[in-house]
Amino acid sequence: MSEKYLPLTVTIGVFCILFVAGGLLYPNFFSTLVIGNILGDNAFVIIAAIGTTFVIISGGIDLSVGSMIGFVGVVMANLDAAGWHPLVSAPMMILFGAGFGALVGVIIDFCEIQPFIITLAALFLLRGACFMINLDAVPIRHPFVLEFSDMGISLPGGGWLSSSAIVMLVALAVAIVIAHWTEFGSAVYAVGGDAPSAKLMGVPMRKTTIKIYALGGTYSALGGVVYAFYTSSGYPLAGTGNELQAIAAVVLGGTLLTGGVGFVAGTLFGGMILGLIATLINFNGSLNGAWIMIAGGLLLFIFIVMHRFLVGSFKFRTGS
């Protein structure tokens, strides 16, 4: 097995260990119902994390993910109150996410400013815009939202694959194709692995940077749409902290924060690991919600240290 697949293998192994441990500790844990719930409940975070994967593989960072999720929900809720159909407002917000992300990419490239600073400014801008639009939660009452919640696929064993999970899996499949079977995907890995060498090889740096953040914005906005449907509301504080959850899912999925190494498919398992930890603690019943953050933080710390040793030992780099 090539060393570049080792982080992904470790991620899948950790997920399997946690799932088996849950099955041994709690009755009925080994069921498609648990898997379906984990996928459905964490779909919007995983969708946003998929876009963040491209950003981190390129050596960048995006802190505006959570604010984008909140902004999309608030705008959609207010458009719903104004009589807009969700199938009209949703694509509009996804286009907004792509355009906003592209603008962030333009600023990063033209001004040569660290992505951390620009996306932090974007975080405050979008969150402030949420409160400018509404201070309180606004329900989305359109019948389609209820229909969306009822859509899904029955799984063997009584499980249910919700429409949110289906959207997430489709978005994941598209992202895998983009990352591993397109020229743009190859450019993302090249930029993250060694930007000066990528430039010498003819990779269009400016164009690639803009596309990366546009793709990240697209997936963040799509995550916001799914979250708005999932909660049937828009709330100015929605998505707070989701940018950190998205980054955690990416890192747990085997993508290195230094860039150049990572698999989009790993982000799915990274997000599911976070969801599985929450499910295990909920099944326990005697632990409060703080343990979800503690356990996730400890696991994230272990993965970051492990990645550091992997880079030092193997010095591997992902190709296209």
Question: What is the topological layout?
Answer:
Blueprint: H1 6-25, H2 32-41, H3 43-57, H4 65-81, H5 86-111, H6 115-133, E1 138-139, H7 143-150, E2 152-154, E3 160-162, H8 163-181, H9 183-193, H10 195-200, H11 205-231, E4 233-234, H12 242-252, H13 264-284, H14 290-314
Antiparallel strand pairs: 1-4, 2-3
Overview of this protein structure:
With 320 residues, this protein is mainly α. It has a single domain, classed as ABC transporter involved in vitamin B12 uptake, BtuC (Orthogonal Bundle), CATH 1.10.3470. The protein is 73% helix and 3% strand. It is built from 14 helices and 4 strands. The strands form 2 sheets. The protein has a two-stranded antiparallel sheet. Helix 3 (43-57) crosses helix 12 (242-252).
- Helix count from the secondary structure assignment: 14
Please name the CATH topology. ABC transporter involved in vitamin B12 uptake, BtuC
E-strand count: 4
Low-pLDDT segments:
315-320
Percentage of β-strand residues: under 5%
**Rg value:** 19 Å
Count of discrete domains: 1
The CATH class turns out to be Mainly Alpha
Counting helices, strands and paired strands, the structural category is mainly alpha
Helix share bin: over 70%
Mean pLDDT: 91
Q: What strand order characterises the main sheet?
A: 1-4
Q: What order do the helices and strands follow? A: HHHHHHEHEEHHHHEHHH
Largest sheet properties: 2 strands, antiparallel
- The CATH architecture assignment turns out to be Orthogonal Bundle
Distance between the termini: 17 Å
Task: State the shape.
Answer: globular
